[in-house]
Amino acid sequence: MQKTPKITIIIKIILLLLSSFSVLIPAFAKEGMWIPATLKDREKDMKGWGLKLPVEKLYNENGTGLNNAVVLFGRGCTGEIISPEGLVLTNHHCGYGSVQGISSADKDYFANGFFAGNRNEEIPCPGLTVTFVRRMENVTDKILNGINDNLPDEVRDSLIAMKTASVEKEYAKAAHLNASIKPYYDGNQFWVALTETYRDIRLVGFPPNGIGAFGGDVENWVWPRHTGDFSMFRVYAGADNKPADYARENKPYHTDQFFKINCSGYKEGDFTMVYGFPGTTQEYISSYELKQVSSITDPIAIAARTRRLDVWSRHMSASRAVFLQYTSKRAGVANSWKKWQGEVRGLDVNNVTAKKKAFEQSFQKWANGQKNTAYKTLLKQIRKEAETADKLITEDQYNKEVALGVELIQQGASFERLVQCFRLHLPDRELQDTLSKVVNSMAGFYKNYDVATDKDVFKSLMAFYFSKFGAWLPAAFETQYLVHNRDFSAWANDLYSTTILASPELLKSFAANATTADSVRLKYDPAWQLFDALNTFRKQQILPRLKDYYTRMRYLDRLYMKAQMAMQQNKAFYPNANLTLRLTYGKVSGLDPDGPAPYSFQTTLGEAATLDDTTRDIFTVPKKLKELYRNQDYGRWGVNGQMPLAFIASNHTSGGNSGSPVLNANGELIGTNFDRAYEGTMSDYYFDPNRCRNISVDIRYTLFIVEKFGGAKWLIDEMSITPETRSLKGTTH
Ligand code: ARG
Ligand code: GLU
User: What is the DSSP string of 447-478?
Assistant: First the structure.
């Protein structure tokens, strides 16, 4: 039916009203990752948003703050303490690498899951650590005292490095803790963190991939989401409750600071906080630096990884052994690959470059009127530096993502250690011992290496390297390519059957029988030649120039940050993420870029069940879970016949926030953060309140899986959970 002009006008007016109205409605989002020790400055705002707790409860220095219940899990995730006996909750994908280390074909925890039946059954995870932040302090004055903006970059850097080391020592000694100082606000401030790292960590509970990685890479970075992305570990301590090396008789870490759990649910608009360790953001960079991300590094990495992942997937679905070898690697490679795609799209859809450029214009106007003449030329300098570096950055991105995307070539780095053994001029016997030691240390690599898979990766990536690169290729690559008549298959066959790097057996026997004369064999190894040519070129021609560029840029970025803060004195600036403890707050809030979708802030097990597809690994709901679903056997965790699964809110999070506690207005645990929605992955550069959402597993789903699926009620018993009985009036749809 044709609309009459009148109706069109009315619709237009309504739309206009709606759009101006939406400006008046406070956006359900709050940009910022705040330093816990500065929360006092945010308290008023947080209370206005719904916080019902004094901020001293969230962070304080006398040992009673919840900062003592948030941990850096491993080297890049967050975890939370949820019992007085050191029980840690984090993501499934954060425990993945450690679980791979203790899994095997007959103990396939990815397929079957693992839930300890008691403490004796908890499994030690060698190498895994958990770090507590006891206190943070602003030490800017101590570090920058006597250092002004006019010092040459290198002098400034070395002075700062010296002072950092001595102030760290001073703090560590006084507090009997580890002290680490990092720059904030791009080097305009410095803070020390006093930390404790525990190193006897044991696996307690890990759902099978059919729950913990449900939806796999298809649902990764996507809302709506149905992944029970959690796992549980326990921190063990020595007799004095302090960090200790692994020992059977170590005791669970005992503490009064752990998160109480709240199971009464949440509704749209409810206040939430995420407490954790976001890794890297660059919210204040210029349009010129942003362009390097959106049009150089992201696109090259995406294209190269698409090829690598295609090959890996093919081989992984053909063999369970290859699947087990590559599953952890694949998850990591695919994760960034997808995020970058969302990032490029989000930067584009939001016109972030244009917004940055507009800001730069007003900045320039402001700078022109400033006494500090350095500010006047700042953007011009940044532009010049960035544009000169574009080519270098392009080249190195190809080297890193394409050439070094081949595991065989990357493995050349270990090979170099063999070459070095020959340089020691040892008698044969000792040479053999030293070589064998190096070869043994490569066992971890070969455990997860499949030659046939990597050979196909080589073919695919080399075709890309040669077709797109143009400007320059390391000589050894050119030569080998030409020798094989520009035939990538012939080249690959020859390479992988000749090099001793492709076979741990060959390497072992080489090491055991080597004599001084054999150094020649290494020198002529074709895989080593590729690595060596690439490595030498990077070291001589690229990396020093890149390093200089980044040093100069760091200096300019620091000034730019300082200038932006001087220009906008009423704006509350938060420092870029730097893998230190931060708190961010927002509200439970749906996301539906295509139109209104009530309740879209939450998913349920019922929705996961409708996705069940036994022909696809990643969408196969485990039998036992299906049974629980069919019987609606949710224990005290279900609500009105439904089992809440995941939810989204508008907290400003980043990589590293995986596993972070998601808290309600009273600081009680309601979920575990594990992802962001695709539409908002550009938030590391630009936060859009309408599109940026963090995704969390509902704590009730976690507890349901632990108790009903894992049969580990003994774990529930050590937690503190309100309400004590099943709530009938929870919120779900
Ligand atoms: N995207 C999430 C993060 O950045 C989850 C990654 C793990 N999941 C996966 N399917 N690879 O860590
Ligand atoms: N999954 C991410 C991590 O490992 C968190 C998601 C994000 O980047 O926001 O930290």
Answer: HT--HHHHHHHHHHHHHHHHHH--S---HHHH
